[in-house]
Amino acid sequence: MKFLDQPPRFLFFTGKGGVGKTSIACATAMQLVASGQRVLLVSTDPASNVGQVFGVGIGNQVTAIPAVPGLRALEIDPQAAAQAYRDRLVGPVRGVLPEAVVKGIEEQLSGACTTEIAAFDEFTALLTDEALTKDYEHIIFDTAPTGHTIRLLQLPGAWSGFLDEGKGDASCLGPLAGLEKQRAQYAAAVAALADPARTRLVLVARAQGASLREAARTHGELAAIGLSQQYLVINGLFPADEAGSDPLAAAICQREQAALTGMPAELRPMPTDHIALKPFNLVGLESLRQLLVANTPMVASALQVQPKIAAPSLSALVDEIAQGGHGLVMLMGKGGVGKTTMAAAVAVELAHRGLAVHLSTSDPAAHLSETLHGPLPHLTVSRIDPHEVTEQYRAQVLSSKGAKLDAAGRALLEEDLRSPCTEEIAVFQAFSRVIREAGKQFVVMDTAPTGHTLLLLDATGAYHRDVVRQMEGTGLHFTTPMQQLQDPKQTKVLLVTLAETTPVLEAANLQADLRRAGIEPWAWIINNSVAATVVTSPLLRQRAHNELREIDAVVTKHAKRYALVPLLQEEPVGVDRLLQLSQAIAVKKET
Question: Is 335 a catalytic residue?
Answer without folding.
Answer: no
